[in-house]
Amino acid sequence: MKYKGALGRRRPYGSPPPLLADEDTWNAWLVSEVGEKRKILKALLNHYDRAWGDWFGLAWALAHDHVPAMSRSGKAGHPQKWDDILRAELRIAVDEVMARSAGRMPRHSALAKVAKKAPWKELVGTSADPASVLDAQYKKAPPQLVDAIRNHPNWEAHKAEVHQFIDRLVQVAAPPASGIKS
């Protein structure tokens, strides 16, 4: 995977202080070096839509992108983008976004929000109307599989991560408060 922006470029070489430099000079250099790397780490977390402290989520996303064994080889012939599991996961994500908006967000708007995030962004490609592409797949999601995933015993373990993702989507989509300040 190629990263864009600051994540895609090497930092210029910054030579450390001379070996006999005083402690203050070394400390200043170390603080600067750690500060730069912390900014890079924040950018990496942002790239993968992870919150500060979600180290497992970041490790999982990095492994998925960079470790070949984390993905399966495709079938021979034309690669198929969608399968029933992806469709079911899409339907669950879109339904949760609509539910979290307390009925304020129609399905097409929820689909448009979801289409901007991985993995859906990659699946819609360069379509002029990504929400319509996702809507076609949303309608094909097998209801039995959607229910099976929602009712799976491990769904609750993963539901918190899904809800964090959905909370970020809903916050972006929420209409501004009507002059009420908290």
Outline the biggest β-sheet.
none
How many domains, as an integer?
2
User: What's the overall average pLDDT, rounded?
Assistant: 80
Gyration radius (Cα, Å) is 21 Å
State the order of secondary-structure elements, H for helix, E for strand.
HHHHHHHH
Strand-pairing-aware structural class: mainly alpha
Helix run count: 8
Helical fraction:
55-70%
Shape: elongated
Low-confidence segments, ≥5 residues, pLDDT <50?
A: 176-182
Distance between the termini: 42 Å
User: How many strand units?
Assistant: 0
Question: What does this protein look like?
Answer:
The chain has 182 residues and is mainly α. Helices cover 58% and strands 0% of the residues. It is built from eight helices and no strands. The longest helix is centred in the N-terminal third of the chain and has 25 residues, at 23-47. The protein is elongated, with a radius of gyration of 21 Å. It starts with 22 loop residues before the first helix and ends in a 9-residue tail after the last helix.
Provide a compact summary of the structure.
The chain has helices spanning 23-47, 55-66, 84-100, 107-114, 120-124, 130-140, 143-151, 155-173.
Q: Which keywords apply here?
A:
mainly alpha, 8 helices, elongated, 2 domains, 182 residues, disordered C terminus
